[in-house]
Amino acid sequence: MRVLLRTFGCRANQYDAEQVRALVEAAGGTVLDGSDVRSAAAEVAVLTSCAVTAEAEADLRQAVRRIARDRPDTRVIVTGCAASRSPAAIAALPGVTAVVPGADLAATAAALG
């Protein structure tokens, strides 16, 4: 499985994303650079969200919409603070297949399949 990882926000989110990276690699998957969500040929995108600033949430929404527009077959999983704060709003974004509040690694693994 090819998984794109993109992190928005603080060092805690970076740590959480590294945990997801380790999970994917341990399962034999490939982690793709998340700097350009449009260019990666990912089957799944895991976006670790931040809710500290409105700008971080806007960046997240923009990334989700970009993936839905440019890579409609890519499943999108949103984890992190924004997923905890606004799960229904995040789930309503186009292409989002799973919302994992906080840093629940087991739930992220289940969403990855």
Written account of the structure:
The protein is α/β, with parallel strands linked by helices and 113 residues long. The chain has one domain (2-103): Rossmann fold, CATH 3.40.50.2300. The protein contains 5 helices and 5 strands, in the order E-H-E-E-H-E-H-H-E-H. It has helices spanning 11-26, 54-70, 81-85, 87-91, 105-112; strands at 2-7, 30-32, 44-49, 75-80, 96-101. It has a 5-stranded parallel sheet, with helices on both faces. The termini are close together. The mean pLDDT is 92.
Task: Spell out the key features of this protein.
alpha/beta; 5-stranded parallel β-sheet; 113 residues; 5 helices; 5 strands; Rossmann fold
Secondary-structure topology with pairs:
Blueprint: E1 2-7, H1 11-26, E2 30-32, E3 44-49, H2 54-70, E4 75-80, H3 81-85, H4 87-91, E5 96-101, H5 105-112
Parallel strand pairs: 1-2, 1-3, 3-4, 4-5
Short characterization:
With 113 residues, this protein is of the alpha/beta class.
Rounded mean pLDDT score: 92
Assembly level: single chain
Are there runs of 5+ residues with pLDDT below 50, and where? none
Q: Which strand order do you get reading across the main beta sheet?
A: 2-1-3-4-5
Count of the domains: 1
The computed structural class is alpha/beta
Strand/helix succession = EHEEHEHHEH
Strand content: 15-25%
Radius of gyration: 12 Å
Shape: globular
Please count the beta strands (DSSP E, at least 2 residues each). 5
Relative helix content: 40-55%
CATH architecture name: 3-Layer(aba) Sandwich
Structure annotation, total helices: 5
CATH topology: Rossmann fold
Query: Main β-sheet: number of strands, strand sense, barrel status?
Result: 5 strands, parallel
